[in-house]
Amino acid sequence: MTEMVYGAIPVRDSEPVLPKWWRTVDKWSLSCILMLFGVGILLGLAASVPLAERNGLPNFHYVQRQLFFGGMAMGVMLITSMMSPQMVRRLAILGFFAAFVALAMLPVLGTDFGKGAVRWYSLGFASVQPSEFLKPMFVIASAWLMAASMELGGPPGKMYSFVLMVAIVFMLAMQPDFGQASLVLFGWGVMWFVGGAPMALLLGLAGLVVVGGMFAYNNSDHFARRIDGFLAADVDPNTQLGYATNAIREGGFFGVGVGEGQVKWSLPDAHTDFIIAVAAEEYGLVMVLAIILLYAIVVVRSFIRLMRERDPFIRFAGTGLAAMFGVQAMINMGVAVRLLPAKGMTLPFVSYGGSSLIAGGLAVGMLLAFTRSRPQGEIDDILRARVR
Length: 388
Known about the structure:
The protein is mostly helical. The chain has one domain. The chain is built from 17 helices and two strands. The chain has helices at residues 2-6, 17-24, 27-47, 49-54, 61-81, 85-104, 106-109, 130-149, 157-174, 178-194, 199-219, 221-231, 240-251, 275-306, 312-336, 354-370, 379-387; strands spanning 121-122, 127-128. It has a two-stranded antiparallel ribbon. The two termini are 39 Å apart.
């Protein structure tokens, strides 16, 4: 408990891996992730039963699958968090090339499962969404390039990362998957900002995003329908947003009771994109605020620990991963309460989904590896030394 309050204690390099990991890992963030996964299982017990009945499957079929994939995700997270930043970088670079090729081949080999967007590879027993794995790999690759550009005689890494970002955003927009495209763009923008990008360039990038949005609205029926639905004065009560809005209203402060919610019988995506509506209806505002607090603790503690980090690669990569993690949660919940247009994005570790759970475990494992305590001075010590 003392270490959770006052921070981890730097340890000797000769210490065994597990004790060293336990002493240096951010236990608050680790605990919050485990609690989020537990909340996901709890909500899945209610949200996935109607879907299983509609598909003629055992009542807890999707819960069992979530436990299976979630167990894999937790294992991946723990193993990755024990790695050194150098090992994480090497594996992520290799994974980035594999995920990039998989994303590029989706129009040829992928499937849409009748949802109108080609985002998955069907493996028969399961499906894989390459974009989920590409996001954390891209953050690491971009951080590596940006850090290299800061060295004397280094390559133009920021320009290379920009080209990669544009290529990935373009491929995601063609699926279409504007939610993941915006998430990749945001994560890269945060790293670019931390790397000292001029404000004029950031404003120019924001302008390009606006122009791209207008182009997508005029040329993509899928995008236009979602924007029109978001801007409409009234919500059709028979749409997903209508059902979710009514469920949140009915839940009130303490909810209607465990298992008593009705939205799960109406929403086809109650166990994935709109899982927060199930939480709000059955457990009320109290549960929603608790979920928001868990995400906030992970993001804020990660940023605080990264502020002490000397290595620019670790700062860039950790900041990008933490920002992307927090914003994905904000987007999912923002859609449910109609603060944002529908995006089709899962709530990390809470929503059902094999690819999102395992990729999320990988991303948070990398973040925990980057935020582990290391024997080094504070970054402001370096700045004060330079002033002297």
